[in-house]
Each structure stands twice: as C-alpha cells, then as structure tokens.
Amino acid sequence: VLVDCWAPWCAACKEYGPAFEKVATRHPECVFAKVDAQKERDLIRSLEVSQIPTLLVYRDGLLLLQQPGGFDEEKLEDIVRQAESLDMEVVRAALGRSPRQ
To answer: Which positions are catalytic?
Structure first.
C-alpha cells in the first residue's frame, strides 16, 4: 500500500501527483491511496505526518517507509520494487514481531 499525503494548495503535491497516478496504473497488484491532509487533519496527525507531500509505504500492515517530498516515476517504481522484494519474515524478525502481529 502506497499512500500519498497531500493538500490541494501544495505546489509540490501538484507536481508529484501525476507521477504517483501513472505508477499506480502500472501496478494494479498494489493499493495506491491519497489522503487530503487539509480534510483529514486528525488522520494525518495520527500518522505523524508533518510535511506534505509525504509518501507512506506499508506491506503486511507494517510501515516500511515514511518519506516527505515528491518522487519522480523512476524513483516510485524503485520504491515499489524494493517493497515487493522484501522478505517480510526477515523484516518482522528485525522488528521483533511474529507473523501475526
């Protein structure tokens, strides 16, 4: 799951949005979502997002990446590849979590 935290007044968000949407169309196996930081202030606060745009990447319910800033298509593709290639058992072990946590 890739989440773009954005706001309609944010110039960087407007530049980044099309790349996010293009990569989303090439990866139907992934969930791409957008959260409007202006409308969803409580959610943004609970996610501890302090800058926009911010990209959140989750896999198997674990936050793998929280990175402020916009990305071009090539970098987003790389992020998707890296997230898909992770051995989640190794990630859980590194975090001290069992597969069901």
So the answer is: 10, 13
